[in-house]
Design a protein that fits this description.
The chain is an alpha+beta fold. It is about 35% helix and about 20% strand. It has eleven helices and 13 strands. The protein has helices spanning about 10-15, 30-40, 55-60, 85-90, 100-110, 110-120, 165-180, 230, 245-260, 295-305, 310-325; strands at about 5, 45-50, 70, 95, 125-130, 145-150, 165, 185-190, 195-200, 210-215, 240, 265-275, 280-285. The strands form three sheets. Strands 11-10-9-12-13 form a five-stranded antiparallel beta sheet, with helices on both faces. It is globular, with a radius of gyration of 19 Å. The model has no long low-confidence stretch (mean pLDDT about 95).
Length: about 325
């Protein structure tokens, strides 16, 4: 029986250390870890909890090893924070589930990722990267624009001000984001169309879409965009219908193209938004997508397509094991 180590960032641990709700928004709950662990055990594997990157280093220092590591650790600091665990595992030649350090470092930077996507010819909104306040005046894109931190997830840094209509609004927002998040700001041409998230399982030519789910923000939501507040308060304010027909096919094509182009592995999500002509544009990829069985997008959309949680994790594990062998 294979022993599978579990690496993760437990949100409650960081809250106890004094970090804020927003700072820990991407981290996982005990319920999520329990769900992953019990499901992997049902699939026939022995499990061993490791924890975050510091716990991994302590265990490796004691000489521990695992046949495979199921890694969902996001990390706390640095543009390479999501790549820390897989990079360390590579040093010790321990195989792991999900993407490698190169993919996780690149895709955390949404601007650099869009440059690669654009080079491949995949639709994505025109954009600029603001590194300092002096860069703001040089932006030459038509309004309205959309601005957000270049390397955050879970809607952090996105609120009702993110859609900007004038140079004055852009200047104020960029300066605020630069100051609050201490990282560059991604400024994009605003896409006015429908928003989707696409679940992908597998690697390379064997990757396939498991579902295309639309994100519909209702009038009950406090903010009309998929912001941090909206994501944290989605029950009763956001609808998630599945795409069908031509919309589904167009989203599948863009998402799979992006997934394969970036070299993502085993499972995750690609977020898309349509332009004024109804063409799905790449927004970002989530190679470490949330996998809480009840409220994370990937299990939700898979479930709506008849793929239960246990089956989804089985597909992800088999993708990783096939790659390792």
């Amino acid at each position: 029986m294979l022993t599978v180590g579990l690496t993760y960032d437990l949100r409650s641990d960081y809250l106890k250390e004094g970090y804020s709700e927003e700072e820990t928004a991407e981290f996982d709950s005990e319920i999520t870890i329990e769900s992953i662990e019990s499901t992997i055990q049902k699939l026939g594997y022995r499990t061993e909890r490791i924890g975050n990157v510091k716990a991994l280093l302590r265990d490796l220092g004691k000489g521990k090893k695992w046949d495979l590591v199921f890694n969902i650790a996001e990390g706390m600091y640095g543009i390479g924070r999501e790549a820390q665990v897989p990079a360390i595992l590579d040093v010790f030649r321990i195989p792991y589930v999900f993407s490698d350090p190169l993919v996780l470092s690149l895709t955390l930077h949404k601007g650099l990722t869009k440059r690669v996507i654009r080079d491949k010819g995949i639709p994505t909104a025109d954009f600029a990267i603001v590194e300092t306040p002096e860069d703001i005046k040089d932006i030459n894109l038509p309004y309205p624009l959309f601005a957000k931190p270049v390397a955050e997830g879970t809607g952090k840094g996105i609120d009702s001000r993110s859609k900007v209509a004038s140079p004055k609004e852009l200047d104020e927002l960029c300066r605020d984001l630069l100051n609050r998040f201490n990282q560059p700001v991604l400024v994009e041409t605003y896409l006015p169309g429908r928003e989707f998230t696409v679940g992908v399982v597998g690697t390379g030519s064997e990757a396939k879409v498991v579902g295309v789910m639309e994100i519909v923000i209702t009038a009950k939501a406090k903010e009309s965009i998929y912001s941090y507040h909206t994501k944290e308060n989605w029950i009763g304010t956001v609808d998630y219908p599945m795409a069908t027909g031509d919309d589904e096919k167009k989203c599948e094509e863009v998402a799979l193209g992006a997934w394969r182009c970036l070299g993502c592995r085993d499972g995750g999500r690609v977020d898309l938004k349509m332009d004024a002509s109804g063409v799905p544009n790449f927004i970002e990829v989530n190679p470490l997508a949330g996998i809480n069985p009840e409220h994370s997008d990937l299990p939700m959309l898979a479930g709506k397509k008849g793929i239960r949680y246990e089956k989804l994790l089985d597909m992800i594990m088999k993708s990783a094991l096939k790659r390792v062998k």
